[in-house]
Each structure stands twice: as structure tokens, then as C-alpha cells.
Amino acid sequence: MNDVNPLPLTTSVVFRLGTLGSVVTARFTTALAELELKPKHVGLMVALDSGAPPSQLELARIMAVAPSLVVSLADHLERIGAVDRVRDPADRRRQVLALTDTGRELLADCTALAHRLDEELTASLTGPEREALRRTLGLLGAEAGLPTSD
Amino acid sequence: MNDVNPLPLTTSVVFRLGTLGSVVTARFTTALAELELKPKHVGLMVALDSGAPPSQLELARIMAVAPSLVVSLADHLERIGAVDRVRDPADRRRQVLALTDTGRELLADCTALAHRLDEELTASLTGPEREALRRTLGLLGAEAGLPTSD
DNA sequence: TCGAATCGTTCGAAGTGTGAATGGTTACTG
DNA sequence: CAGTAACCATTCACACTTCGAACGATTCGA
Questions:
Q1: CB of residue A85 closer than 7 A to nucleic acid strand D?
Q2: Which of A44, A137, A139, A150 to mutate to test the interface with B (most CBs of B within 10 A)?
Q3: Is the predicted pLDDT of residue B121 greater than 90, yes or no?
Q4: Does chain A have fewer CB atoms within 10 Å around its N or its C terminus?
Q5: Has residue B95 got a pLDDT over 90?
Q6: Among positive and negative, which fits the CA dihedral B109, B112, B115, B121?
Q7: Is the model more confident about A52 or about A122?
């Protein structure tokens, strides 16, 4: 008989982060549907919101995603009026994306929505616990090259 | 002019958990490839490891996944010798899955792998920070019905 | 014993993302 | 100042994952 599992897989941060991230994203995705958006659309808007207007190819690099995917994401965002898409006059190969006022409002809606889900998700935590979680996730995310605001 | 963003989307726990979870899962998936496994296979083995041998349909409910998906996951695990699949003599409609010794070893490999990634991921955290993160994620995961061990 | 419910399986379909090929634009090089 | 190479966006075909409906086998209820 082997010894008892010293540290089960379920205790690993990787496992817990992955599984919990998946259910949280599922909830977020559901809520987002009312705005005609999916998480990647939001990711694109976040990238546009913080930083100079980049070309679609740069966006693809930032989001670690295929350039062809940026095309379809931008197509949709343009269709609902959330972004402007203009050829860069200085280099007419580039397509420069920029959030419209509508896009900024939409992003604000997503933000409100996320924070509402936050309260729901972390209702059982104390204030300091919640802040510690937020801070630690932000730190690890920043190390992984994810968008942050601290 | 509206006021400055009071709390950007990127500070929300939902956002950070979702994005970080996604990159962490990607790393885990890559590492898992050497064992001929994908995250859902591991999820199935975890479910089998902790608890009485359930039918495939129960597994599907536990994993919140379609029964037909459990079939293909179990097919693969059986092919590599990680699980036994026997008809329940008491009810020959049921297919009862159980980890083999090989399966338990494989699960131990996954566990070691996850904890190795843990160290890599949380290298910049202090010990207490790492434990607080683990604990909080476990708590929220348990509330969401995810497998735990506390 | 007969019909309804249950379990597992197969199969077709939807959704998501990638990579190769294409057309238009710019930059380099002799 | 050609002509070629590199670059950007786009389209399209494809792979992958997952689901839901249909089906056969088995069990349960009346």
C-alpha cells in the first residue's frame, strides 16, 4: 500500500486557478451575451482602451492570437459601432482601430458587469481577503504579460 | 466629460481570474501533452480518485459536461490503460470506471507536474501570500462546486 | 408482460481558433 | 528608378472541442 497522497492535485494553485477561472469565465460569458459581446471582444476593447491605437497585427501580438481572429473580432465591434477602423494615412497597409464613444460606454458596461460578478463571487470573503486576492492575481497576471492597471 | 475610470475592468477579480486562468491552463495543457493527456482527462481522473466509482452519467453531471464527452474521455483513458471499464453486474446498463495502478501513477505525475508549475508561477510570492492564494481559491472553488481537498 | 425510463454510444452539427494563400502597400537594393 | 522582398489585412479551408438528437440495450413500474 502506498502512502496517502501528500499533496493532492486539487490543492495546487495551477489546478484551482484553471478550474475556477473556467467557471468564472463561463458566468462572465453568459452575462456578456446581453451586450452582444464575447470575452475576446472585451479583451480587444481593453487593449484599445489603454494605449496608443495599434495596428491589427500589433493587437494580435498583444492578445497572443492569430491576426485573422482580430479581423473577425474587429468586424463585429465595427458592426455594432464600438470601434472605428481607418487606414493609417502614413502607411495604408495598416488598419488603425479606435474605440468610439459607444465603445467606451460598452466597455463601461462590461466593467460594471464584472464588478457586479465580483461581489457575487467574493461575497464570502472578508474585505482584506478580497483585496489580497485581487492584488496577488494582478501581480501574477502582470508577470504573465496580461493587461493590468496598478 | 465623464469622470476618470473609477475602477478599470482590469482590476476586477473576474477579469484577472479569467485571463490568468486561461494562460495557466495553457501552460498546464502543454506540459500535459507529454503524458498524452488533456485537462479534461485529468478532471475525470480526479473525479474517479476521490469518491466511490460512479457511472459515466454521474461523472458527466459532476464534471458538468455532456455524457457523450465522457465516453470519448474514458475511451482514451482506457486505451492508455489508466482506467478499467466494467459493466456493473447489478445494473448492466451502467459502465463503471475505476483508476488502475497505471492511472494512479499517471495522476501522481500530473500532480507533481502541477506543483512544479505552481512553484514557477508563484515564485515571486512570499510563503504566506502563496498559502493565502491557495486557500482563497480553494474556498471559492468549493462554493462553485469544484473538487477540493480541504 | 408490456411500455416507459435509464445508460451508454454513435453521429452530425455548431462554435472557436489556426495557418496557408492572396491582394494591396511599402521598403530596400542595385 | 525599376524590381524584388517584406509587411499588413483579409479570406478560406481545416482541425478541434463540445453538444444534442437518435438509437440499441437494459431495467423498472404497473
A1: yes
A2: A137
A3: yes
A4: N
A5: yes
A6: negative
A7: A122
